[in-house]
Amino acid sequence: MIATKAYAAPAVSTPLAPFKFDRKEVGPNDIQIEILYCGVCHSDLHQIRDEWGGSIFPMVPGHEIVGKVVKVGDAVTKFKVGETAGIGCFVDSCRHCPSCEAGEEQYCDNHLSFTYNGTYKDGAPTYGGYSDQYVVDEQYALHVSDKLPLEGVAPLLCAGITTYSPLMTWKIGKDHKVAVVGLGGLGHMAVKFAASLGAEVTVLSTSASKKEDALKLGAHHFVVTKDEEQVKAVAGTFDFILNTISAQHEYNFYLQMLKLDGTMVLVGIPPEAPQVSAFNLIGKRRRIAGSMIGGIKETQEMLDYCAEHGIVSDVEVINIDYINEAYERMIKNDVRYRFVIDIASLK
Predict the structure, then answer these.
(1) Which of 275, 19, 339, 315 is nearest to 149 (CA)?
(2) Residue 201: which residues within 8 A CB-CB, separation 6 or more?
(3) What is the pTM of this model?
(4) 20 to 30 A Cα–Cα from 239, which one of 32, 113, 333, 340?
């Protein structure tokens, strides 16, 4: 076994603290990654608070992982020692269901092994990237370009693919009018991707203070949703709305901004089931849909796209002993736009 240093939540809603555990040995198809950076996702906070149910403790969060390959198994063909690699939100799946065979492993019908707060097929718990290393099957690791700052690449493994995937699925590009609801860790990536794809992008936000940032990120327009006149002006105008908000909010408010055959895709997960008016859907043949992350193939495509177009997340790098304070700031939306842990601070 491989001795591993980490930070973990020992029980529900308790502060994270230093933690040691053993990673599995590198098998024939595995690679060992020395973690350099790990992004801090809002889902980390949801999970340590058991807000989605089923949390497993002690919990080592983290699923936005970038590092260097330090060891490879005898049968590995895709990675070499010294290369930069990444790990996203899952590290295994059943591999034989229709979803897996279609390259959509994130929707595995049988057993998806999440990078943390999950289990492997043998029932052993998974521990995440708030640690100094990870051992993963090469089929579930990603190639990462050294052209980009790695601290900015780490959040692409969740925030990036979560927003890139629906834009690809709905074939967003030129001549599309796209709105992004919320300008946080997910929202700022949605703006960057949609603008780079040639769409006309509007940010919908309750906070007028975010307008300057939105325009710098590539948005063409900004609507303060507390301003009745601004909201009225965009009624029935958008082809596509990417809703990144995870707090409780009113879906009907945004649905009325869609034009005929428009779609609102949800990537945030509010704590309570929303109420949706049927009239807001049938009146303009509007759609409401959901999207998770992407499969391995699509995630690799996203990373390659980012390397080609110079796209990374806007981040604030922190030491790991600051993680509990970072969570408190994240609750207050006091980060532009993603915390990333420098794992060197763990050693």
Answers:
(1) 315
(2) 178, 179, 180, 191, 194, 195, 218, 219, 220, 221
(3) 0.96
(4) 333
